[in-house]
Amino acid sequence: MKSLIEALHHTCQTNLLKEKILLVDSYSNGEQVISQYMKEGYHAINLKIKTIRDLALASVELHHEYCTPAIGSHLLYKLLKNLKVEQQLQYFHELEVTPALSYGMFEIIQELRLAGYTSETINESQFVTKAKGHDMVHILKGYEMLLHENKLKDDYHLYHEAIQRGNRLDCIYILQSNLSVTYLQEQFLKKIISEHIVHLPLAPVYGVAKPQQTNFSRISEGAATPLSYIYQLQALEDQRVNLNLFSSKTEEQELKQMIGQIGKKKLKFDDCVILYSQSNPYLTTMYHLKEAYHLPVTFSEGIPIKLTRPGKLVTGLLQWIKEGYSVSAFIHLLQEGLIDVGEEGPAKTRWTTLLRKLNIGWNEGRYLIQLQNELRNVEGKLHQEHDAQKHEYLSQLRHDLSWLLEWYQAVFAKLPHSSIELTYRELLLGLQQMIRDFSRISSSYDQGAKEQLLEQIDRILSYSNEMVTLNEGIYRTEELLLQLQVGASRPKPGHLHISSFKNAAYLAREHVFIVGLDNRRFPGGSGENPLLLDLERKKLGNMIPLLQENSKDKLYEMLQVLASSSGHVTMSYCQFDVNENRATSPSHLFLQCYRLQSGWHQADFKKLKRSLPSLDEDIILARDWWIQKLTSANQKVLEQSLLKNYEHISLGIKADEERMKSAFTIFDGKIISDTTMLDPRKNKEKTISAGKLEMLATCPYSYFLQEVLKIKPLEETGFSIDRWLDPPTRGTLLHEIFETFYRKLQDLNERPSVEKHHTLIHDIALNSLATMKETVPPPSEKVELQETAEILESCETFLKIEEENSIHGVPKFFEYSFGVDGIEPAMITLPSGTIHVSGKIDRVDLQNDETYHIIDYKTGSTWGYDGHTIFRGGRQLQHMLYTLAIENHLSLDEGVVQKSSYLFPTKKGLGQVFEREQEESIRTNGRDILENLLTVIEHGHFTMTDDENDCRYCQLKDVCRRSTYDKEQMELIHQDHEATGVRRFKGVRAYD
Predict the structure, then answer these.
(1) Which of 45-49, 556-560, 609-613 has the lowest mean pLDDT?
(2) Alpha-carbon distances of 163 from 25, 39, 116, 181, rounded to whole Å
(3) CB contact set of 626 (below 8 Å; sequence gap of 6+)
């Protein structure tokens, strides 16, 4: 910067009273130049910072609204869709019109217009094919018409009018080096600037070609520095350079190393700048580190708006709308703390609990219906309740439900209905009101994000009356709002500054840290833009940049930043790409810098990688310290005196150590306290069901978690765009249809007949589906039709099976219950005592020979069922248990129930029936299985399953962590001869 300051000072001194304009690409560049100038003790008198756009705006008066990129790409989206629908495109006719395409096309049109082209002056022959030229002319013409119709003007109008009206000003123009200039801007500058121009010099870059220059974008060179010679090492006489190189495993570690070095060296934040080669993922990672460390940081390009609370609110609201207003999506908004309702509403945990209990599922109407129904229910209970404590609870519940009902009524009045089509304006207005009314603000970034989102929507509203599908509207809104950046800032005193290297040539900070110098990120590819190829750019000329030169230009910009740095430079690259799961290599620039630093000019990449220092990860957060300690192979590094203050961690380490042993311990499901209350033979108040016994036989540890510790997975009615009824709901529906059908037949005193009762079962199914639709709305008409057809197909399969089997007997009982809803339980007597059993049998048929046949409907697949396996290691006990239970409950003679069957009437089940003859040997074996399982409970030995396939559909895998045990260790645990319950469990497995 020394040469620059000297040149600026000379110009200011020789033209002290004359107006001087510092012409720069951005105000940030100009502020940095003047800041450094004043730090040297000079005074910037009559020196103003201007951009080319500022000068143009001063020359003309635009009476029309400015066409921003948001408005322009929005208008182009509509234009491209219309051209495609009307079949007016010849070259681009197969392209899908997306927001990304329309934004890309807007950028190309701006490039063409700033090169001086309009639909009248551009020639079809300047493109690779006549068809493409035809399309580009049509798109340009359509865009120009849209600007005229909507009374908009873009940069073409600005500079075109400025060229006509601009006058030469009597002032000194001081230009930054390598000023970005388009063709129209150049014509405008020629009109207003005299030939006397001062170009501020920067340190030269040797060994690489300079970018293309004009009189106004000239690269002026000052005094060389050691880092000017990175690509001309042989010309460097003084080898001493303030350069440090390292690599890290991840981008987060890379940034932590930089922050760690700032801390270790006790550097001032405002003496440091971190530059990145690409914003992703460094911007996001740095923001998270800033929040975690409470660092004073400024971001030259701002941060992604998606990181702010209003940005997250928009993301969550769009997901909520996309999922048909599903409860699970809304609960995510609550749990993230993104909705601010002040002090009026219930706490978010209370709110979440109420939503889950209401069984809403999704659909805006369901919120209101279920809240109204529950409110009426609570008010009814309130009038009858005389207990003061319960009355107070119900009063608070009524208050919360009333508030929620009013809140959701207001919200759904703002947001669009979950319909197939709507106006884009309707969606944007709803979001705008939600952002305005409910955004939670806790930082300046949040406040800025809220304001920017509201402004962005305001810009588009006047042009958004077109009809869109809901998915199209959401996609366009995501592109419109969630690609924004917020909080862009110039460097501030006392703050660490984060910037792209592209904006860093004038950032004169003593310590420069550069991240992201792997060969994947820097200098990046030089791919072409298919919308406007380099061949076409060359034909068009007029200073339209060639994209094949991008990587060369980036390299030159980076080298100029390095050459201009006056202090210490630290450079790094990330060794591993997590997304692509592969190692990365340093860039060629990184290698050149190593050659310069080491003095070994012939060093290759192998030598570089071997020589780079291996740095320990800096411990900055308490989390980093704990992770390092807890993942150490030697956990003894945790001092016992420290662990006394963290009992939960100490207990966790002990549990982890115990679980690694080959014996069955209290950390693997062993209970050493009294189990009397768990044993249904001893606790007569306890009933047990077939489902619980099968759970116990499948995996005792799962039984322990759910029935002893009472850990339950969350049961939410989840939304799926491709599914209406989840398996449990579909199963319940089919059970109800079959029961209703058979009760109708009983009333008619008829046996099932496909010919006679086809219409009857169809009508019952359609009525049941209509009722279900009110409770659980389908996500779309297509899904509703598809699943309705599947239900009707299952009913037809069921009717065919029943017609074939009707010759053997008639249904006697439907949904026969015991031990539930106040009905006495069944009792089964075993050698060790009597147990009380609860359950509900789908159907019991009376056979022609006066025996009974139990039928259980299964609506899933037949996996795990066959004609040979009876008990499947205890996993299938229901057939035997229901046999013993109903004989007891109906006071039948033992042996009267001769068969128990599993019927699969669905498409998955292929109408198969698996019968289990309830002969004496099966009853004997079944009782023995029950004895073994009850002994497991008695001893409190709830070991994990011995078959990892049992874990496939388990919802408690994250709690259980069976996968952390190796196979040999699990086998040793199951061979623990001192654990009676474990031995009995293995005994159950012997029964196929």
Answers:
(1) 609-613
(2) 19, 38, 12, 15
(3) none
